[in-house]
Automatic annotation (TrEMBL):
One of the record's GO cellular component terms: plasma membrane
Subunit structure: The complex is composed of two ATP-binding proteins (XacJ and XacK), two transmembrane proteins (XacH and XacI) and a solute-binding protein (XacG).
Enzyme superclass (EC): translocase
Name of this chain's protein: ABC-type D-xylose/L-arabinose transporter
Annotated function: Part of the ABC transporter complex XacGHIJK involved in the uptake of xylose and arabinose. Responsible for energy coupling to the transport system.
Organism of origin: Halobium palmae
UniProt KW Magnesium keyword: no
The reaction(s) this protein catalyses: L-arabinose(out) + ATP + H2O = L-arabinose(in) + ADP + phosphate + H(+); D-xylose(out) + ATP + H2O = D-xylose(in) + ADP + phosphate + H(+)
Length: 358
């Protein structure tokens, strides 16, 4: 199934009569079998968009299509779309078998035996056959998650919607369930939309990432493309962990000046920046390195992550910049650290609009 979102807008009434624009004129076209991941800060409209697609929320304007056919105001039960929620939404008084079978309750064409058979198949697929007669309260978080996913799969939907399905699980189980969901999606080839706060999940699972902010689409593209070619400063700061560093600079004839340092940039880059004066320069933490010669900064915090170290540096004020280094680089807090910027990976943004220039 292809999924089309055209000009989708959802406005809620605010607490004092004002308007909350949760989704603002959103356009996204999803291909058959695609795995699309929505990311963005809390309140940017991810869940509202999913709920509109599921039919749980009625859009203020715009259109939702499945295979080109409009379903904007269709009842949820008439859309063959299954949603997996963050809190699993299992029925506490029903056994696992009946929870999974619940997805089929409207299927008058299936006998009780056929439903049982389908539930058994899905339970086997999800590795929960031995839990079928238990109640949700007797299951671990990971097991409940499997039941919730099983209940979605049993319906053999044309579209899967996942709203942060793994966020209540511990890190190890999350990774495991992540690969399971990917495996299932590959096996069924069902178009899926997945909301997450987890960058690693987004980067590893997505065919394409959709970055939202304030209800508006910021960028849509393959994870590496969004990472390497962010459309604007917001995307640059949101995608990538630790976040990109930003320096307010002035540019003149191939020379970039910051309050505390200056850089000569390539002729090619200077040409692209021609006509701009005030800019924001972006440097990813991995593109800053500790060197003998360069910019002197003060180490405020050292974070040892095992595989690498993060140095939080300042020019003596409140602004912090992050350098990602090998674990063997471990200067003392308070010391001066000299940093070199790898000039081949610089980004420049318009200081007013935030749009990427280079
Ligand atoms: P999170 O990552 O925290 O789940 P989100 O990106 O999913 O956030 P939404 O839940 O879609 O964001 O909310 C978008 C905006 O709409 C927020 O400002 C939220 O407060 C508002 N909102 C959502 N549902 C309602 C509602 N039923 N009534 C009023 N405002 C709402």
């Amino acid at each position: 199934m292809t999924v089309g979102i055209n000009g989708l807008t959802k406005i809620f009434e605010g607490p004092e009569g004002g308007e909350i624009v949760a989704v603002d004129d959103l356009d996204i076209d999803m291909e058959e079998g695609e795995f699309v991941v929505f990311v963005g800060p809390s309140g940017c409209g991810k869940t509202t968009t999913l709920r509109c697609i599921a039919g749980l929320e009625s859009p203020t304007s715009g259109e939702i299509t499945l295979n080109g056919e409009e379903i904007t105001y269709e009842e949820p039960q008439n859309r063959n779309i299954a949603m997996v929620f963050q809190n699993y939404a299992l029925y506490p008084h029903l056994t696992v078998r009946r929870n999974i079978g619940f997805g089929l309750k409207n299927r008058t064409d299936l006998s009780k035996e056929e439903i049982d058979e389908r539930v058994d198949e899905v339970a086997e697929l999800m590795g929960i056959s031995d839990l079928l007669e238990k109640n949700p309260a007797d299951l671990s978080g990971g097991q409940q998650q499997r039941v919730a996913t099983g209940r979605a799969i049993v319906r053999d939907p044309e579209v899967f919607l996942f709203d942060e399905p793994l966020s209540n699980l511990d890190a190890k189980l999350r990774k495991h369930m992540r690969t399971e969901i990917q495996r299932l999606q590959e096996q069924f080839g069902t178009t899926s939309i997945y909301v997450t706060h987890d960058q690693e999940e987004a980067m590893t699972m997505a065919d394409r990432i959709v970055v939202l902010n304030d209800g508006e689409l910021q960028q849509i593209g393959a994870p590496t493309d969004v990472y390497n070619n962010p459309a604007n400063r917001f995307v640059a700061s949101f995608v990538g962990e630790p976040a990109m560093n930003f320096f307010d600079v002035k540019h003149e004839n191939g020379r970039v000046e910051h309050e505390h340092f200056a850089l000569e940039i390539s002729d090619e880059m200077a040409e692209m920046l021609a006509g701009t004066e005030e800019l924001v320069m972006g440097v990813r933490p991995e593109d800053l390195e500790v060197a003998d010669d360069g910019i002197d900064m003060k180490l405020e915090v050292l974070e040892e992550l095992g595989s690498d170290n993060l140095l939080y540096l300042s020019f003596g004020d409140d602004e912090m910049y992050i350098v990602e280094t090998k674990p063997t680089v471990e200067p003392d807090v308070g010391e001066t650290v000299t940093v070199r910027i790898r000039e081949e990976n610089l980004y420049f943004f318009d200081d007013q609009t935030g749009q990427t220039i280079v």
